[in-house]
Design goal:
Elements (H helix, E strand, L loop, with lengths): L8 E12 L4 E4 L4 E8 L2 E5 L2 E5 L3 E5 L5 E4 L3 E11 L7 E2 L3 E3 L2 H13 L19 H6 L6 H19 L3 E2 L6 H12 L7 H7 L4 H12 L3 H19 L4 H7 L5 H12 L3 H8 L5
Antiparallel strand pairs: 1-8, 2-7, 3-6, 3-8, 4-5, 4-7, 6-10, 9-11
Length: about 280
């Protein structure tokens, strides 16, 4: 990522929440990031990298489209922010999950909530809200606030994110420039069918050699990577667009709707219908 390129972060939800052994949810997967600051008590968060005990005095970041779960059996108090990232920074950088929260961070979090009243969720169950009343509606709510509040909110988000950026690392730190070129090609052509032969020819390699090289760099096959990126794009389209599921599948070059359904559920844990029902608002 270009270090001079500014982030474009949009606040969706923000609040301080007291849980009484009721922060227990599985299979959470959303098109926005979650930033937590623990005030008191303890809970456990399970992410692909492992299970972590979250504790007071620290901030935690869960990127968009990361399937995770929560476990809590006692009183637990935390601040939460739901943040939409328009630049897909999580595709470019690996962020630490946990960092210490300074006194300034606590003050910034409290001030952010004070200038953004009414941004809390009515219920904590992700199946009830997740992106309800839709990502677009949450983004549109920023129009209800004055320009100075929006600018100040943005500034605080940048400051809190900067704490994680200090320890972030580029996902594209690869020795082989050919794979970097391939990832860019996939990103720019995600809406059409991309064949392994096509990618191998870009690298001037045989198909088998290319697959081995790609797997060495990305820890997955080219097809797995392409499918993951297509489903991520489908998640966004289901959330913010009015296209039918069939049209979305076709727009991403899935010729068999049944295969699109199976792949979507395998990656997200929900069918396209279930995902749209949870995340889409008809008014948008």
């Amino acid at each position: 990522m270009n270090r001079k390129e500014p982030l474009n972060l949009i606040l969706l939800n923000a609040a301080r929440k007291v849980h009484h052994a009721d922060w227990n949810w599985k299979g959470v997967n959303s098109p926005f990031a979650r930033l937590y600051m623990v005030e008191s008590g303890y809970a456990k968060v399970n992410i692909p990298e492992g299970s972590f005990r979250i504790r007071p005095g620290y901030m935690y970041l869960i990127p968009s489209f990361v399937t995770h779960s929560y476990e809590n059996d006692s009183t637990f108090v935390l601040y939460y922010l739901h943040i939409y990232d328009e630049q897909n920074i999580f595709d470019k950088l690996n962020f630490p999950f946990e960092i210490p929260a300074s006194e300034m961070d606590v003050l910034l979090m409290k001030h952010l909530l004070s200038i953004n009243p009414g941004r809390g969720l009515k219920r904590s169950d992700p199946d009830d809200y997740d992106n309800f009343p839709s990502l677009m509606q949450s983004i549109a709510r920023n129009n209800e606030y004055s320009l100075d509040t929006v600018v100040e909110t943005y500034g605080i988000l940048l400051q809190l994110f900067s704490r994680f950026l200090k320890k972030a690392s580029a996902k594209q730190e690869m020795k082989d420039e050919r794979i970097i070129k391939i990832l860019r090609h996939i990103r720019e052509n995600i809406n059409r069918e991309i064949t392994i032969e096509e990618l191998a020819s870009i690298c001037y390699l045989s198909k088998d050699h290319f697959i081995r090289l790609f797997k060495k760099e990305k820890n997955c096959t080219p097809l797995q990577y392409i499918n993951q990126k297509k489903i991520e794009k489908a998640q966004l389209m289901l959330t913010v667009g009015g296209k039918s599921i069939k049209d979305i599948a076709f727009s991403l070059s899935f010729n068999e709707i049944s295969y699109f359904h199976r792949l979507f559920k395998k990656i997200t844990g929900k069918s396209p219908y279930q995902y749209r029902k949870l995340h889409f608002s008809p008014s948008f």
